[in-house]
Amino acid sequence: MADHQRHGTNHLDEVWHHSDEGTVKPVSDLSRPESVRVAVVNDFDVIVDGVLGLLRESPSFTAVVDPTPDADADVIVLDTYGRGLRPWDEFESLVSGHPDRAAVIYAFGVDRQLTDEALGRGARGVIWKGIDGTTFLDDLTRIARGETVVDLPVGLSAPPRPPGNWPFRETGLSLRESEVLAHVAAGRSNREIAELLCVSSETVKTHVRSVLRKLGVANRTEATWKALQSDQFARRRRPVLVEPALPPSA
Q1: Is 58 exposed, middle or buried (0-12, 13-18, 19+ CB in 10 A)?
Q2: At 76, phi and psi to the nearest 5?
Q3: What is the distance between the alpha carbons of residues 6 and 24, in angstroms, rounded to a whole number?
Q4: Partners of 126 in the β-ladder
Q5: What is the rounded CA–CA span in Å between residue 141 and residue 15?
Q6: Which residues does 107 contact at the CB level (< 8 Å), separation at least 6?
Q7: How far from 141 is each of 114, 117, 149, 166, 203, CA to CA, in Å?
Q8: Pairing between strand 4-9 and 148-153?
Q9: Hey, CA dihedral for 154, 151, 8, 55, is it positive or negative?
Q10: Which end of the chain has the lower number of beta carbons within 10 A, N or C?
């Protein structure tokens, strides 16, 4: 499992200042709120259900079914899967007019720039998807108690095994490969995907090749067709996707 930085504070300008002072006090030693209402925002059913499954492991959390800006939730978790790492328009719609609501960015590819921008826009948490489920719930508890929590990777000693679920996980796709497939199925080019995920085009090409191999398809069109035919890519708010004109030949 990868190491990660985990820090909480009530002051935005101290989040990074305290980033090297060691681990924080275990949340089990702190008072928990009686019930925290949490809404998870993402288009993909399997992504939302995966996060909701984590929440159900603790009696401290109540899942809010309605993931809209007007949802009656204490904490909004914006999962960036399929969106890219700069979802600020949607983020603003979730926090606007709700000063008491805590908004959290839950992402796989997080860095200092993303974190600083998120905190500057009013996020109360930036959480890396490589952490385990228990730590994720602890982070949400701290956020619900009024802290600002930053939980980022430090050094990768092994490929992370994020909790929850994602499309084609059972086929062998990693979380990042699955996310790349989501963007491919939306008709985005390698360069567009690289910009959204803040990686190089060569990295995206490597992921695409791996996706094609694991899905047993020959090209992006066949991968898109297979993705869109799968229930794993079912969406709550389905946008217009770029679909192949014809099914792949048998």
Answers
A1: middle
A2: -110, 120
A3: 7
A4: 105, 150
A5: 17
A6: 79, 80, 85, 114, 126, 127, 128, 129
A7: 22, 22, 10, 24, 35
A8: antiparallel
A9: negative
A10: C
pLDDT by residue (tens digit) across 192-250? Answer: 998 888 789 999 999 999 999 999 999 999 999 998 888 888 766 433 233 333 444 44
Q: Which two tokens stand for residue 179?
A: 């996310």
Sign of CA dihedral 60, 62, 63, 68: negative
* Burial class of residue 61, CB neighbours in 10 A (0-12, 13-18, 19+): buried
Other CB atoms within 10 Å distance of the CB of residue 140: 28
Cα–chain-centroid distance for residue 161?
13
Q: CA–CA distance from 247 to each of 96, 174, 224, 231 (Å)?
A: 43, 25, 10, 17
Higher pLDDT, 140 or 95: 140
pTM: 0.71
